[in-house]
Design a protein that fits this description.
38% of the residues lie in helices and 21% in strands. With 338 residues, the chain is of the alpha/beta class. A seven-stranded mixed sheet has the order 7-6-5-8-9-12-11, sandwiched between helices. Strands 1-2-3-4-10 form a five-stranded antiparallel sheet.
Length: 338
């Protein structure tokens, strides 16, 4: 590689502000191991945006059938159980919009949408996975199957609340999407976003092993100030922001545990494959037994350490927006205030 090519590989222009950015880290798909490809993330020194560059052309292949958001419940009981777990999210939205029309972007199979509908909202969803859209139709949720927003302006009306739960980081054109969604908010309506936090303590510690880097599915790690600038530029007003709300606190705990599991898997101390995969592998019974024991022991150690770190470092994570994720609410001004 020539010096010019090497320099180009280490630098990029920020897609948010256009400032020159430097290579932050290289990572593989440590979460799902869908390929051995290496992905480059850049960090903008001007605005702090962390972004994947270049974005793979075949990005859809990294969303496998076992992707959790697309894991359709096998029974109505399983759906109700998962929907019940989304109750706190609905209650959070109701702090800012107690009723009315709600749009969820990227609902997966629709647990939150289903629970929001049960709790009184008139719900519509936009989802790119066709099987999830078919499933939502079966459980009574109106879902538009689309991976783009260009053709939806005349299809969607106005909403009292629009929610994106860990979705905005997946969107290649997230700034255009926020512009689009802001136009479809009713006066006084709210845009609710929860997303991984690149300013978190965990990202600084784990770097390429942080479970919420999730290369290459997470195209962006967006600082709160960057998202706020984008929203206010589209006429929205900040109404709430926290990296230590109930959603973030639960996410902190999971991220500590899952990131330590990812790290242990990368060291070779713990087999990356799960117990079922180990049992199905072509190897001796003794080797399978040893690998299962290693998997169980080190996974237990990771969970124990994760819970300890979550407890001991809670004061740091709850200060100055250092949590693993943040929740933010933007409000469209009421009529007469615009």
């Amino acid at each position: 590689m020539t010096n010019a090519a090497a320099l180009l590989a280490q630098n990029s222009l920020c897609p948010g502000c256009g400032h020159s950015s430097q290579l932050l880290l290289k990572a593989v798909d440590a979460n799902r191991r869908s390929s051995s490809n290496e992905f480059r993330y850049f960090d903008c020194s001007a605005c702090g945006l962390v972004y994947l560059y270049p974005i793979p052309e075949n990005l859809g292949t990294y969303y496998q059938n076992d992707y959790s958001a697309y894991s359709i419940p096998e029974s109505s009981e399983a759906l109700n159980e998962r929907a019940e777990a989304a109750t706190q999210r609905v209650l959070f939205v109701q702090r800012f919009a107690s009723k009315g029309k709600l749009l969820e972007v990227g609902p997966g199979y629709g647990a939150f949408s289903y629970r929001a509908q049960q709790m009184g909202f008139e719900v519509q969803a936009i989802e790119m996975d066709a099987s999830c859209c078919d499933y939502m139709a079966k459980i009574g949720i109106e879902a538009i199957c689309s991976s783009t927003f260009n053709s939806l302006d005349n299809v969607l009306g106005k909403f009292d609340a629009i929610a994106l739960w860990h979705v905005v980081e997946h969107l290649e054109n997230y700034r255009e999407v926020i512009n689009f969604l802001s136009r479809h908010l009713s006066p006084g309506g709210v845009l609710v976003i929860c997303t991984p936090n690149p300013e978190s303590l965990q990202f600084k510690l784990f770097r390429r092993f942080w479970v919420s880097l999730d290369a290459p599915r997470h195209l962006y790690l967006i600082p709160l100030k960057v998202l706020t600038t984008c929203a206010t530029g589209n006429g929205l007003e900040p109404a709430f922001a926290s990296a230590s709300d109930s959603e973030a606190l639960a996410y902190n705990k999971w991220c500590w545990e899952a990131s330590l599991i990812v790290w242990l898997g990368s060291t070779g101390l713990m087999p990356r494959a799960g117990v079922r995969a180990i049992l199905g592998a072509e190897r001796s019974t003794m080797r399978k037994y040893v690998d299962i024991v290693r998997r169980v022991v080190f996974r237990s150690v990771a969970i124990g350490l994760g819970r300890s770190f979550n407890f001991l470092l809670a004061p740091l994570e709850r200060s100055k927006h250092r949590g693993a994720s943040y929740s933010v609410v933007f409000k469209k001004p009421a009529l007469g205030k615009q």
